[in-house]
């Protein structure tokens, strides 16, 4: 049943959050909501979404309660970095829902964490970005 739930397409409102108060608080408020369809393809171990240019995927691997984000695959003609950031924000919200810690292996994803400090509480203990 769990695999069935993980494999279905995520088409729902995704909430973008921001921290309020001190940096150590976990209380969040809704900042913005968009609709983005994300498929968790557990067989290929990647999150997928489709754009006009083709398929965009973020590859991952699991170890215990951690998800390691290893690679972003985009079509050659795709250049919309804002969309990639929105996709990563959606993936971070999925990690929140599943109570996972996120380990950014790819430098582009580490840069995402530097720019979006609200997601730093998803990093496992000992990882500083």
Keywords:
3 helices; alpha+beta; 129 residues
Physical arrangement of strands within the biggest beta sheet: 1-2-3-4-5-6
Q: How do the helices and strands follow one another from N- to C-terminus?
A: HEEEEEHEH
Shape: globular
**Number of separate helices:** 3
Strand content: 35-45%
Rg over alpha carbons = 14 Å
Give the tally of β-strands.
6
First and last CA, distance = 36 Å
Structure description:
There is one protein chain. The protein has 129 residues and is an alpha+beta fold. Helix content is 26%, strand content 41%. It is built from three helices and six strands, in the order H-E-E-E-E-E-H-E-H. The radius of gyration is 14 Å and the shape is globular. The protein starts with a helix and ends in a 14-residue tail after the last helix. The N terminus is likely disordered.
Sequence-ordered SSE layout with sheet pairings:
Layout: H1 2-7, E1 9-19, E2 28-41, E3 46-51, E4 54-63, E5 66-73, H2 81-98, E6 101-104, H3 107-115
Parallel strand pairs: 5-6
Antiparallel strand pairs: 1-2, 2-3, 3-4, 4-5
């Amino acid at each position: 049943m769990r695999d069935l739930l993980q494999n279905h397409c995520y088409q729902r409102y995704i909430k973008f959050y921001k921290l309020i108060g001190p940096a150590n608080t976990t209380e969040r408020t809704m900042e913005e909501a968009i609709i983005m369809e994300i498929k968790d393809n557990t067989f290929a171990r990647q999150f997928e979404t489709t754009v006009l240019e083709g398929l965009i995927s973020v590859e991952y691997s699991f170890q215990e309660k951690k998800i390691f984000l290893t690679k972003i695959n985009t079509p050659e003609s795709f250049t919309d970095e804002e969309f990639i950031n929105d996709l990563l924000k959606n993936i971070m919200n999925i990690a929140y829902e599943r109570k996972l810690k996120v380990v950014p292996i790819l430098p582009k994803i580490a840069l995402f964490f530097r720019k979006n400090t609200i997601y730093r509480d998803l990093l496992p203990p000992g990882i500083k970005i």
